[in-house]
User: Fold Lytic polysaccharide monooxygenase from Actinomadura gamaensis.
Amino acid sequence: MPTAPRKTTLLLAAVAGLGLPLLSAAPALAHGYTTAPPSRALLCHQGVVKNCGPIQWEPQSTEGPKGFPSAGPADGTICAAGDSRWAPLDDPRNGTWPAASVPPGSSYTFTWHLTAAHATTSFRYFVTRDGWNPTQPLTRAQLDLTPFLTVNYNGKIPPYDVSHTGTLPAKHGRHMILAVWTIADTGNAFYQCSDVNFG
Assistant:
């Protein structure tokens, strides 16, 4: 007959064995970044922009509270999703971030690469107002707070490479596009800032 310690060991092994499938069945945390137009996080990851801090290894991790613009990251911390680890993304670098050329008032396909997909509420795209200051950290006052493109998912899980086609605003010159991926079953969203040049 097994001793008491032997019984305890067998019991723990059985519990651990039962727990493994439960752990592996848990949903993965969502992560992702925009590839078109390329986000600041992606440019850091690619080494196009230097001295970015740890975001260069984690471009998919700009996760913060959802509910933007009424909630979400504080002004001045939007590009880093309110996470101080990614603060270099909020640094305007005196307006010298590389800017992708985009066609004003024309059709454009936005793309994301997700490293972990998740049930999704929506993807929304905002753009800075005319006359915004690219040498200052991004704030709500610098944005048109009505998204120019909203793609609703109603809780569905998007593919790992996802695209959304819409019409760009008829802007001119340098601007920033803020893409917000809102997760359905957590309290968070992902924030990606892309510097662009219209025309």
About this structure: The domain at 30-198 is CATH 2.70.50.50 (Coagulation Factor XIII; Chain A, domain 1). Residues 73 and 82 are 5 Å apart (CA to CA).
